[in-house]
Design goal:
By secondary structure, the chain is of the alpha/beta class. The chain contains 22 helices and 12 strands. The protein has 3 domains: 163 residues, Rossmann fold, CATH 3.40.50.300; 179 residues, Arc Repressor Mutant, subunit A (Orthogonal Bundle), CATH 1.10.10.10; 114 residues, Trna Endonuclease, Chain: A, domain 1, CATH 3.40.1350. Helix 8 packs across helix 9, helix 13 crosses helix 16 and helix 16 packs antiparallel against helix 18.
Length: 496
């Protein structure tokens, strides 16, 4: 462990947030125990892994190497050149293979703990499949000891390959002392990162670009909408402008993650989910594709972290799908149907046609997801009477009201224990652009009655209304009497 007498370097001001990740990396890199150690850093593209790792090596005088796609000989040559510059050698070392390179990298920690970063490690493994085994052997050499104090950090954005390399079934897993995932910023951190104080504007921007930090600086050149009235113009001059990197980013994400032979079907599947198909069967019907092909495509998207699947709160056997990256949802629900027009017409004219789809398909579903995220990340045990452990969409099978429509809930909150996935703490409706009133509360009470008829324990369940437009006076009065939990944008963003 780090020596208590040696202060750990503070996070540079240029690194926004990431306090937990910084502390974990610094503690690992400064661990003074006399053996080499291995750490793994993963996460989707554009989340700032490289930025963070470069800051760590800069603060501690460590070695940083970014792998790139190329042959083994070329990769070793690039690594040797960087190694020579770091060690101030007169010429690069002549390595016969990866075994020599790994030995020299670990030897950097002979005198002190030093971070040694290989970024985008999977790019090396694709051309050198034996590299993980060579690495394992180097750490197991000398009767299982790991001499030296090198702190090797292997980073990668290819989630499936990172899982295969460092998952629980991998030989490298037992050698890894650190497993760190760098995630997108949540909605509150994203608002601070973009410097947006208005929660309406913050959520609209988050519905387009999510919490991916790279999009603000590298992709829109720090173009931030000043007020909500500027949002439409901001969309037109950034994500709808063919001259900006953000315009093609959604397609780049799939091209970098998905093989060419699967890409077309994956685009269509993402479009189906983004426009309202939430189950595998619905996606297959929308695509007109065999269920087996659809299942393989959806599995591929989920494996790469581009699609999430969660069990329905009331029907655990039914998996509800949603697009993981907001920019992908925005692209496939809003922009994709108008791409050809954007090459010929002014973006403002195209956005005028596409804005209703953004409001009805993207903003509404994104608001509901932000509400679910808020429950898990920010709602304390006092809000629902216990600490939430899950917040998901829920629906009852078959017609459940006199009109023949299903009862659905956008935010179903469960805690520990209970007969199903956990005790039912709350059922809620989320309405982005609708002022909510007593009618919504009555709908929730009807849902709770239907659940009770089906054997669900609803004694602790609190109705909840989540709105981006506000609440009527009667509903506010009901909340004051403790009959319903109200969550508005100020509460979601910690402003009230």
């Amino acid at each position: 462990m780090p020596s208590s007498a040696t202060p750990l370097p503070g996070k540079p001001p240029r690194v926004f947030d990431r306090d937990t990740e910084w502390q974990a990396l610094i503690a690992f890199a400064c661990d003074d125990r006399g053996e080499a150690r291995l750490g793994v850093v993963g996460g989707r593209l554009r989340q700032g892994k490289s930025y963070l790792l470069e800051a760590v090596t800069g603060a501690l005088g460590g070695f940083y190497f970014t792998a790139r796609q190329g042959t083994q000989t070329e990769s070793l040559s690039h690594l040797a050149g960087d190694f020579a510059r770091y060690t101030h050698a007169s010429r690069p070392p002549h390595w016969h293979g990866w075994e020599d390179a790994v030995d020299d990298l670990l030897a950097l920690g002979d005198r002190r703990p030093v971070p040694v970063v290989i970024d985008e490690f999977p790019d090396l493994v694709r051309e050198s499949p034996a590299l993980p085994s060579l690495l394992h052997s180097a750490y197991r050499r000398h009767d299982g000891g790991r001499p030296g104090r090198a702190r090797l950090l292997l980073s990668g954005s290819s989630l499936p390959l990172m899982h295969r390399l460092f998952g629980a079934a991998s030989p490298l897993h037992e050698l890894s002392d650190l497993h760190l995932a760098v995630h997108p910023f949540d909605h509150r951190r994203a608002a601070r990162f973009w410097g947006i104080d208005d929660p309406v504007l913050a959520l609209l921007v988050h519905a387009v670009v999510g919490g991916t930090p790279a999009y603000r600086h590298e992709f829109v050149r720090d173009d931030v909408p000043e007020k909500r009235e500027d949002f439409d113009a901001w969309v037109c001059r950034t994500v709808l402008d063919p001259g900006t990197p953000l315009f093609r980013e959604a397609y780049h994400l799939l091209r970098e993650e998905i093989d060419h032979k699967d890409r077309a079907l994956c685009h269509s599947a993402l479009a189906a989910v983004a426009t309202g198909c939430s189950t595998q069967g619905q996606v297959a019907d929308c695509l007109g594709a065999p269920l087996t092909d659809t299942a393989r495509c959806l599995g591929l998207l989920r494996e790469h972290g581009l699609l999430h699947g969660e069990a329905d709160a009331f029907r655990p056997g039914l998996v509800r799908l949603r697009v993981a990256e907001p920019l992908l949802a925005f692209e496939h629900a809003v922009v994709r149907p108008h791409r050809s027009a954007l090459a010929r017409r002014d973006p403002a004219a195209v956005w005028k046609l596409a804005r209703p789809d953004f409001d009805s398909l993207v903003a509404r579903s994104h608001f509901a997801q932000v509400c679910r995220d808020w429950v898990l990340s920010f709602a304390g045990p006092d809000v629902f009477g216990a600490r939430p452990t899950s917040a998901t969409h829920g629906s009852l099978p078959g017609p459940a009201d006199p009109g023949g429509a299903e009862f659905t809930a956008d935010v179903v909150v469960r805690g520990h224990g209970g007969a199903r996935d956990g005790s039912l703490l709350s059922v809620g409706l989320a309405r982005w652009d609708e002022v909510m009133d007593l009618g919504h509360l009555e709908r929730l009470r009807g849902l709770l009655a239907a659940l009770a008829d089906r054997g669900e324990d609803v004694t602790r369940a609190r109705p909840a209304c989540y709105s981006g437009a506000g609440f009527g006076p009667a509903l506010r009065a009901a909340a004051a009497e403790g009959h319903v939990v109200l969550v508005d944008l100020d509460r979601l963003y910690g402003l009230g």
